[in-house]
Amino acid sequence: MNPAVGRWLLESIGDEVGPPSVQHALGLSKVMPLLAPLHTGLLKNAHDAGCDAQMTRWVYVGLVEHARAARRPEIASQGEKKAPA
Known about the structure:
Layout: H1 3-12, H2 28-35, H3 49-71
Helix pairs in contact: 2-3
């Protein structure tokens, strides 16, 4: 993952990221539990082309949801919707 995106992701969940010079290139084993926790079973077959493609898709979906939630805090994480008030 792009180090800038990795840094943003870790910062947004409250992890310590250190000074700006510290890079955070995250692999699928770190990113899947953060962005696609329901699909971490795919990690068992990592390095299989089809499985890696599925994980990449779920990371993308998770990043989009995470970015939307960061931009609009009223959107619940993991695609859950809040009940109307």
